[in-house]
Give the backbone structure.
Amino acid sequence: MPNNTINKLPKKVEKPFWKENFNRIPEVLSVGDIAEYLRVPETTVENLINSGDLKILPGLSERRIFKGFLLSYLTQSHPEAMGLMGKPEETIKGGIRNTAGAGF
């Protein structure tokens, strides 16, 4: 006989994406994720990408943004100055893995 006096646990409440600590959001974000985080329309994020203010990851069929590039935009710091973009592989002795940058 089931015990009907036991209350069911409430469903897990998800925090809005923009209320997460920055270190807890995913490393790779979609345009929709960025829009939700900034609380702006996706067209605004698309405009930031098209103007070059927000960099995207190269070589993907869908636009994806590295979390570090979002931080670069938010702090108005150049990705290179933050160590997010390495030099071309051929100019670095030992290859891209020997740089401080992510190599994007």
Summary: The radius of gyration is 20 Å. The helical segments are 31-38, 42-50, 67-75. The CA atoms of residues 10 and 95 lie 52 Å apart. Residues 17-77 form a domain with the Arc Repressor Mutant, subunit A fold (CATH 1.10.10).
